[in-house]
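Q: For a teaching session next week I want to show students how multiple molecules come together into a single three-dimensional assembly. I've collected the sequence lines for a complex. Could you give me the predicted structure tokens for the whole thing so I can convert them for display?
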Amino acid sequence: MGVIATSDQLATARAARGDYRAGRAVPTSGVAAGLTQANLIAVPADWAFETLLYAQRNPKPCPVLEVIERGQVESVLAPGSDIRTDIGRYRIWRDGELASEVTDATDAWDEHRDLVAFLIGCSFTFETGLVDAGIPIRHQELGRNVPMYRTNIDCTPAGRLRGEMVVSMRPIPAGRVADAVQISGRTPAVHGAPVHIGDPSSLGIADLSRPDFGDAPEVREGEIPVFWACGVTPQAAIMASRPPFAVTHAPGYMFITDVPDAEYIV
Amino acid sequence: MGVIATSDQLATARAARGDYRAGRAVPTSGVAAGLTQANLIAVPADWAFETLLYAQRNPKPCPVLEVIERGQVESVLAPGSDIRTDIGRYRIWRDGELASEVTDATDAWDEHRDLVAFLIGCSFTFETGLVDAGIPIRHQELGRNVPMYRTNIDCTPAGRLRGEMVVSMRPIPAGRVADAVQISGRTPAVHGAPVHIGDPSSLGIADLSRPDFGDAPEVREGEIPVFWACGVTPQAAIMASRPPFAVTHAPGYMFITDVPDAEYIV
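A: Of course. Below is the structure for the complete assembly, covering every listed component.
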């Protein structure tokens, strides 16, 4: 649609990427408000087709915003960026196991020079619209990371890749749940409407207070847990499918782009 | 969304695929009304990632409805179908040149056993909505193929693939153009809103009466030429990029699925 970021927004985004490049590591919810954040998964070229196909077949959890081809490290969504350094915290995966977390992934790109990087949409994009509509975002208010859960929903496999859907959860006042559905539904390119509302157990979530990723939630009286497809889903696919090598962001530590959230509203 | 086709629709779709499988070859505009039709491009596995990436980077002309992996020939969008036979007319491409047109592509799949097939959304899907709104579809009325044109709009390249956007054109009464934009805009997964309205020359189209694909249009007094991104765009990429081998449908001779058009309305 050609929505343009303000110079203040761009300065904030560049400063944040610069901080992360220098080694700072904080969750990015609420950082550079109004600009789109993205999940990262990078795999060796041999796995790139299946990763892109997995995303195409599972567009709600895995909406592809950009593919950075082998040999490239700059995102077109953030000119001047370096995908190896500009995320606060990375995860290095070997044979489906989390091998380490690092604040600089340059060594990983040196080790595998054929890495293809996928930037996947993030639910933080529609949080802007929710906040603008007066719907509270609890984890932002508390300065915490959003809670994320593995579910019993199988994604559609693609070649060697399979795994379950990961969801993020936001407690929403019961009277605003319908608004939250409609507002997030206007951004189908970044997870869109919720995949589930109100019943954690039917997603296979035994204990809402113990998320698989991120921080514990605080669900208050009169609030309903609302679940959105989450861009951490590729990490569940890594665990289930065990590719020899992969790099991802650490959940909640996103790549900040220069693209306004409004760009993804239909 | 889980919209279900009626048994009459499904019977019509299966009968049409059966006719094409038996060798019948007619343009499919208006056939099995209300069910989604798709463009085809199939390439050797070595070109599959770039083809999928080209589609991801150019979603208006190349919205991917399904990828049929190597070794598979049945579309999940049409159970019981065979992608090698169930299109009325195929094009076989060698080194970017149109080598032949056939009504059965089984030999092509035998020659290249690693073909990966992509089904791409078709503007016929939103024609249903236009007709329902009382907007005339001239090429349907005349029993002709929709006119399609190569343009001067470059698609975003992906690896070895590049090429210009192809558009389809429908003459729309001036008073209904805004309606046509809004109705087609509700199907972003199948080309969505027009890419251009009213000025062929700015698209590099010198003579509207001589389309590059399909049949000549008939634009009447008071009608505006409206241009939509077209799923023949991958064929322009084949011509420009010269992969060693490819199979496509012949323009206008689409693959008919069992999926209601309404499934793609947001």
